[in-house]
Every structure is written in C-alpha cells, then in structure tokens.
Structures
1.
Amino acid sequence: MSINQTSSVSTEPKKSSIVSVEPRGLIEIDKVSVLFGKGDQVTTAVQETSLVVEPGEFVCILGPSGCGKSTLLNSVAGYAYPTTGSVRVDSEVVTGPGPDRGMVFQQYSLLPWKTTFENIALGPKLTNDLEATKTTEFFLDMVGLTKYRNHYPSELSGGMQQRVGIARALATYPSVLLMDEPFGALDAQTRLVMQESLLDVWSEFGTTVLFVTHDVDESVFLADKIIVMSASPGKVVAEFDNPLPRPRSQSMATRSDYIELKQKCLDVIRSESLRAFELQNS
Ligand code: ADP
C-alpha cells in the first residue's frame, strides 16, 4: 500500500497505522494557457495544454529549454496562474501553493544555518513537535542521511543536499511531488545514483510525481508516462507510456524497449526543434 492512500492529515510515519481512504494525487490540467507580459511584450509560455496524471503515477515532462515546462509545473504548484483553463489537484482548483504539493527545485534551497534534521523538520514542525520529530527521523532514514542529521548544508555533497530537499518536500505528506530539473546541477555519476535513489523513495512513498527534465534518458529511466512539449510556445505534442518494468536499474539502458522509447522521444524533439528553427527564420 502506498502512502498516497493514507489519510491526508496523518503525520504518523509508521506504515502500520495507515488508514485506507481515497487515493490522493490526481492532477487535472484542463486547457491551460499561461501568458506573461502585456501588449507587444506578451510571451505565451504554455499554449492550451491538457493533461491528466493519475494518483501514484510518475510522469516526466520533457522538452527543450524555454518550452514552458517549468511554467506548466508551476501552474500545478500554484506559483503561476493560468491565463485560461484550470488546474485541479484531487478535484480542488489550484489557486496558490499548498502543503498538498511538495516542490523540489534544481537549486537545493536549503537554509544554510540549519542542520539536515532542522531543514527536513521545517514542514512537519508546523503541526506538532513530537510527531514532527518522528516524521523527520522517518524521512531522514528514508533518504539515507541519518548519520548526517547534524551536518549543515555546506558540509554535504550536492547529491546529499538534494536528498535533504526531497525529504523536506515529502515530510509534509504531500499528495503530489513536483520536481523541476532536481538533478540538473549534479554531475553525471551522482545524477544516476540520485535517479535510482528517487525511484526507491517513490516506490516506498507512492506519491504522484510530476518531474520536469530536458534529459531524454532521465525521463525514460524514471517515468511511467512521458509528456513531450513542443518548442515555444509550449504545448503537449506527444505522450508515451513507458513499457519498462519496475524495479528499474541503469543497466536497462541497453534494452530494446528502452532504446525504442528513447528514439521516439528524440524524433519528436528533433522535429519540434526544426519547426521552431524554421519559424524563427521565416
Ligand atoms: P522551461 O522550463 O521549458 O525552460 P519556462 O517555463 O521557464 O521554460 O519558460 C517558458 C517561457 O516563458 C520562456 O520564454 C520564458 O522566458 C518565459 N517566462 C517564464 N517565466 C516568466 C515570467 N515570470 N515572466 C515573463 N516570462 C516568463
């Protein structure tokens, strides 16, 4: 049983206490366009896009830089407002940020004067001290950083800092985890380790994940479903179900179904990039 089937108000980390209720984490993006600026200066960051992400699903949004991936993600987070259309999470229209949606950014955004434990504790501390401590310890353990609980961010590697960021986002028991190129600042080797580590955490936690990336391999390795966005103005131009079985390992990159899916994504991205190039030069 996944934690997205738990009561939305529980801060109890022990799975034995899980109460089965409605699955959480349904995202419905309905004909959303996001425009920035006014008059001649208008930028259409997202052009009429619809997408449904089922509870517990891991969906990657893939596309070239500047195509509106972050804006679409931010419309779910409540940081960007749709100019037209709407976003609903578990049937509630998103009107701003909320604890039901945890966010992990590329920059680790940890508080440098707080320890690992204190950074993770920022979310659950708002509820109740005893439960917050138990919850923090649970997530500290889940991301393998119990030994580093008293270290400050400057004493941790980039990968460790991002694990703190993930634990902090999960510690409020969000129904949805929104990740904006979370491993973009890491070196290639650490990135692979972090992808595996994220899948371990996700398989244990089971929350819905919406993950933005421009890395095709990353999306094929992680996702149940890959959404490919066109070059600016961004809209969904392809949606691929990922046939790779779970659990996954990096050695799957040589499988024929992996290579086939990667090629399909690359073909769409290439034709979209060519189209954008032609538009810019016409
Ligand atoms: P991606 O995440 O795919 O790199 P973004 O969503 O960040 O793309 O940006 C999409 C487009 O919207 C870009 O042209 C970007 O310059 C523009 N944009 C994003 N945020 C803002 C903003 N707050 N104000 C004005 N333009 C923005």
2.
Amino acid sequence: MLDAITRRLFRHLLAALLVSSIATIGLAGGLQVSFATALMLVGVHFLTAAVLGIGATRRAIEPLRQLTDILRKGDKPSDLLLQELGELGTAVAEMWRRWQQVVAEGRSEQALLTAIVERMEEGVIATDEHGNVLWVNPSARRLFSLPADTLQRRLTELHLPFELLALVQQALRSGNPQSAEVQWFHPDERFLDAYATPLSVNGRPIGALLVVRDLTNLKRLERVRKDFVANVSHELRTPIATLRSLAEALLMGGKEDQAVCDQFLQAIADEAERMGKLLENLLELARLEAGRREWHWQSVLVSDCVAQVAERFKPFAERKGLKLVVRAEPTLRVRTDPEGLTQILSNLLDNAVKYTEQGEIAIVVERMETADGDWVVIHVCDTGVGIPPEHLPRIFERFYRVDRARSRQQGGFGLGLSIAKHLAESLGGKITVQSEVGKGSTFTLWLPTGLQEGNG
Ligand code: ADP
C-alpha cells in the first residue's frame, strides 16, 4: 500500500511539473516578462509546493508505515497508533480482536486434540501422502521403540512390521480404510490390531493415519485360559481312564480274587485321592485368582511357624535319608495370615523333599534390608536335582513342570509353585529362586516387615 502511495505521489509531481511548464510558457507570454523570470517564479512556487506536499504526505503516511511494520512482525499495534489512524485504526483493531479470537479457539482445539491423542492407549502415527511421518503419539513410540527423531523420517525407516507398512500403503492407494491383525516377533511376540485410514482435507488426500492396538495381553490371557482347560482335561483323563479300567477289571471277575480285589480297590482309592488333591489345588487357585480367599492377619512368630511345618515334613525327609535343619532368628515377627504362610512353606518344602535324593534341606530365617524394603526372608535350600536356567522363568506358571514324568511320578500337578507365588503376593511378599543343575535350589520367600493391620 505504501508503495502505491509513493507511486501516486510521484505521478502527481510529474503532472505538477507538466502543468507548471505550461504555466511558465503562458506567464511569459501573458505578463511579457522574460521567459527565464517566469520560469524562476513558477519553479520557486512549484518547488515550495512540492517540498510542503512531500513533507505533509510523509507525515500522513508515517502511521501507515508503522502499522505495516508492526503487522508484518505479527505484533499488536498500540492503541495510540490505532487512534492516530482514525477509521482505519478502528477497523484494524476489530480485525485484530477477531483474529486473536480465531487463533485462541484454534489453539485450544489443537491442545484438546493433542491431549486426547497423546493419552490414547493405542499407538497413533500420521503420515503425509508420500509416507513421511508427520506425527507420532507416545504409545506408538513405546510400542515400536521409536527413536526421538521420528518426524519427517519415512515410515519405512521406522522398523515397523511389514504388514503395517503394507496397510498404510493400501489405505493411501485405495483411499479406503484398511484393517488387519498382525503378529510380530520383535523383540518379543506381540499381537497387534491395526487400522489405517486415508486423511483428506476438502476431498484432497493429505496422508494416512495408522492406529495400532496392542492385543498381546489379551491374547496371552486367552492362551492361558485355553491351556488351562487343556491341562485340566489332560490331568483328569489319566486317572479317570485308570479308574475305569480298574472298575472294569473288578467287574469282569477280579472281585472274585480277594488279593486282586484289595489291590485294585487300593489303586482306586489312590487315584481318587490324587484327583481330590488336584481339585483342591484348582479350587485354591480359583479362590486366590478371584480374590475370594479370606485372610486372617495377625502377628506371627516366624520361627514357630517354620518349626511346625518342618516337623510335619521331617518323616518324609528322613524316609529318603535327607537331613532337615532349621536355622531361624528366634524373635522375628511378621504381620501375616498364618494359614497362608504355612501353605507356602509346605509347598516349598514338599518340592525340596520331592526333588532331592541326597544331602540336606535347610530352612533359614533372617531379616534383610534391600533398596526396596525391609524384609523377613525364609530360604528353603536343598541339595537336589536343581532346575536348568531356561526353565527358571516359567516354573511359577500353572501346570509347568521341568520334568513331567518325574513330577507326575512324585504326585505333582505343576500347581504348587503357582499357588505359593499367588499366596506370597497376596501377603504383600514375593518368591525368588536360585538354582544350579546337580547342586540344588534355594527358594526364598520375602515377607515385608512393615505391613500394618490396615493392609490386611
Ligand atoms: P509340581 O507339583 O510338579 O512339583 P510345582 O509347581 O510345585 O509343581 O513345581 C513346578 C516344577 O518346578 C516342578 O515340576 C519341578 O520341575 C520344578 N521344581 C520345583 N521345586 C523344585 C526343587 N526344589 N528342585 C528342583 N525342581 C523343582
């Protein structure tokens, strides 16, 4: 605008110059003065008018120039300047107010959208139509371990599963949303539910949006449930088949022979007892998992509890020629459920006796302070077969057995440790294990000393 004003000013000056030239010729003729005098008079007049005109114009357009500079910088013009500009100033002030309102509304809308997408559990990645990454939310960063400088990289550089890249490409190419379930093995097995949709503004394609939901935990639970049903059926199938064949053998004449009859009936009783134990274990697990077990919290002298359990297991250990020793600090107390504590210790001792052929089983009770708390710890140490390191992470899973045949032969179902772990966690503690094949295992129960009445 200022340029236009300047150009117009020059045009006017040129016109004035033309008019003054004509006036000079006329004046020289009319007043019969010499042409030089007339030229001088008109020239002086013209120059004075031009200087005054330029000065006045410059002063008049100065506020406009200031306004242009301020607006160009994106600043707000001062009230004084706007007042100076009169009607134009009022219009600019109104425009400024509306503009600020639009900007504020845009900002708060953007902040709201960002807050929503940033907190979404689903991973979200937006790309332009060429596959360059425009935007990534924290869940996507976590899910795919994305580097910090993701933006403006190509989607193909992000080490995403191939199926996700194909999904985005299909969405971009077809202009239609695409979805798929993707199994991914990096670094661990993952199940993803992915949805890619093209993005457009006023009908013009501008990119694609990829939304990914992590279904791994859900799938894992589903698998655990299926495995559980399969395991229970498997555990029941064998004793039921045994019971059936024993009963059939009795019916087909076995009952006539007293010795065979007694032997078969004893076998039936043993199998029934085994099934009863399995059901007891399953019910215990179900109660624990459903949070339906009742706890009776009280102050327990740990050495007493340990001594009672050790006494119960002594005959079994001695029958195998094993020594069972207890080394317990006598005054240590914890606030816990005594029945739960007894059950954990029984399961650990039962295993120690089952999986040890020679040597000794020691129960050691002591107090330990670690970075994450103050504990009473109970170690159950054996000199048994030990557990290969690759099995250690899984031995607390339901029905997991390192050596199926040996465990079954010992009357185990692979449920003892998972029950013990559940109980320990319900009592505010944990169980850890250290083991070396051929040397033995140490299972350690950690119980917090700081549990108060209210925690129960
Ligand atoms: P189980 O009824 O088979 O003993 P657990 O859940 O108690 O079931 O134990 C799971 C598996 O862990 C066992 O089958 C066994 O292979 C292994 N295990 C447990 N305790 C010991 C131990 N003290 N020494 C060696 N292996 C053990």
